Amino acid sequence: MERKSVIVVPGNILEIHTEATIVSVGPDTDSELHDRIRHVAGDQFHDQLSNVTLSVHGETLVAVGDSNIHRAFRNIIFVYGEPRYSLGTMVRSALVAALGKGYERITLPCTFNLYDLENAPAREKKALVAAIHRDAEVMVDAVCDFFEGYEKAASSMTVTMVIPLNPHLDGGKC
C-alpha cells in the first residue's frame, strides 16, 4: 500500500514528531535553527558534525540522536549546500540519506537559505517573501522528484515541510 506524501504545515520544525529533521550547513546557514537545536538537544548532533567535513554540495551526514532522550525529532540529517547551487539537489540528497537509514517520517524547513525578514527594510520584505515562496516550490518539486525516482523504496515515506510562524509570511503560509 502506497503512503508516500508531502505535507506542508506551519509551526516550529523542532516540535514536529519525526524520525529525522533535515538541516543545511554551509555558507548562509540558518544559525538560529542550529542554536535552537543546541538548546533542545545540547551538542550531541553538532558534535557528530564537528567530526567530519562536509564540503561538497549535497553531501550529507546523518547525526543519530540518543534514543533514551524523548523529544519530537530523533535524528538530524545535515546537508551541505552553497547558495549558488540547487536547493533541489540538497533536498534529494538528504532524502536519499533518510531512505538509506530507513526513516519514514522526515521534516524539512520551507527554505535552506537565510532570509532576515525581521531586520529587512520594508521595501525589501516583499522580495524576500517572494524568494522564500520560490525556495519552497523548488523544495516541494525536489521531494516529488525524489518520490518518482525512488517510487517503491520510498513508498511509505512522509515528508513534512514546515513553514515558520512568521507574520511576514502571510500568517505562516510559504
Task: Write structural notes for this entry.
- This protein has a six-stranded mixed beta sheet with strand order 1-6-5-2-4-3, sandwiched between helices.
- With 174 residues, the protein is an alpha/beta fold.
- The two termini are 30 Å apart.
- β5, α4 and β6 form a beta-alpha-beta unit.
- It has a single domain, classed as 3-Layer(aba) Sandwich (Leucine Aminopeptidase, subunit E, domain 1), CATH 3.40.220.10.
- The chain contains four helices and six strands; from the N terminus they run ββααββαβαβ.
- The radius of gyration is 15 Å and the shape is globular.
- α3 crosses α4.
- Helix content is 35%, strand content 22%.
Structure in a nutshell:
This protein has 174 residues and is of the alpha/beta class. Helices cover 35% and strands 22% of the residues.
Task: Quickly list its features.
single chain, 174 residues, alpha/beta, Leucine Aminopeptidase, subunit E, domain 1, 6-stranded mixed β-sheet, disordered C terminus
Q: Class by helix and strand content?
A: alpha/beta
For the record, the CATH class is Alpha Beta
Q: Whole-number radius of gyration?
A: 15 Å
Mean pLDDT: 84
Tell me the fraction of residues in β-strands, as a range.
15-25%
**Percent of residues in helices:** 25-40%
Order of helices and strands: EEHHEEHEHE
Number of structural domains: 1
Major sheet summary line: 6 strands, mixed
How large is the count of helical segments?
Answer: 4
CATH architecture classification: 3-Layer(aba) Sandwich
Strand order of the largest sheet: 1-6-5-2-4-3
User: Which word captures the global form?
Assistant: globular
What is the total tally of β strands?
Answer: 6
State the CATH superfamily name. Answer: Leucine Aminopeptidase, subunit E, domain 1
Low-confidence stretches: 167-174
First and last CA, distance: 30 Å
CATH topology type: Leucine Aminopeptidase, subunit E, domain 1
